[in-house]
């Protein structure tokens, strides 16, 4: 997996694999407490109507934690799905197309979740 | 340098090491010919649950969007989740979430350099299965019986 220049210099690949790897671990660590908070929220919001949702998200702690959850979750799943696509699609053109299409869908739903939480907060 | 391949199946076993030299070694396991083991099964479960949870994240964003749209839209979303199909989907998501959570901790510990020897890896693997099943049961007991 080394580039010719990287091999000549005795360094690793010149691509962005390390950044990807580290970001996946960072978001995973962030998601450990955040997903437990999400499970707690599911219990607190069981059978809630919209008014209860508005009251819940209006609490600053809940609003901020939900924004952090959505950000970490969608970033993490985008990194994970990219690895899955890169493992199974070998043609460079189709692989790039699939990764970009996946990213577009993930960004759309991530923004939808984020804007919805913000609208519930304010 | 050419590596002699006595068996045609070994043609798939050629790679390059970090120095760029051709080497012959097993590459990614080909699931059709790879004997299932606890390690490989848990690994592919991690990936499957990750993809399933990504679909769950899409549902989460639709649920939040319904709440941000109107009282009627959110009531509809809640009633869909409360149906038999909705509950089955939620059950699948809780199982996938707790599995990915527990096995994710296992992966993070490996990355930190702990528990990578085979006996420990097998032990933590079974622990992950037991813990994720247990957490799912506790979740639904709290959700359906206690609350």
Which short descriptors sum up this protein?
heterodimer; A: 122 residues; mainly alpha; 84% helix; B: 147 residues; 2 strands; elongated
Could you explain how this protein is built, in words?
The complex is a heterodimer of chains A (122) and B (147). Helices cover 84% and strands 0% of the residues of chain A. Chain A is an all-alpha fold. Helix content of chain B is 69%, strand content 4%. Chain B contains four helices and two strands; from the N terminus they run E-E-H-H-H-H. Chain B has helices at residues 38-69, 71-82, 84-111, 118-146; strands at residues 14-16, 22-24. In chain B, strands 1-2 form a two-stranded antiparallel ribbon. In chain B, strand 1 and strand 2 form a beta hairpin. In chain B, helix 1 runs antiparallel to helix 2, helix 1 (38-69) packs across helix 3 and helix 3 (84-111) runs antiparallel to helix 4 (118-146). The interface between A and B is large, with 38 and 35 residues.
Low-confidence stretches of chain A: none
Count of individual beta strands of chain A: 0
Largest sheet of chain B: 2 strands, antiparallel
- Total number of β-strand segments of chain B? 2
Low-confidence stretches of chain B: none
Residue share in β-strands of chain B: under 5%
Structural class of chain B: mainly alpha
Rg of chain A from C-alpha positions? 19 Å
Number of helices of chain B: 4
Order of helices and strands of chain A: HHHHH
Q: How confident is the prediction overall: mean pLDDT of chain B?
A: 89
Topology (elements, then pairings):
The complex is a heterodimer of chains A (122) and B (147).
Chain A: H1 4-9, H2 17-44, H3 50-58, H4 60-88, H5 92-121
Helix pairs in contact in A: 2-4, 4-5
Chain B: E1 14-16, E2 22-24, H1 38-69, H2 71-82, H3 84-111, H4 118-146
Antiparallel strand pairs in B: 1-2
Helix pairs in contact in B: 1-2, 1-3, 3-4
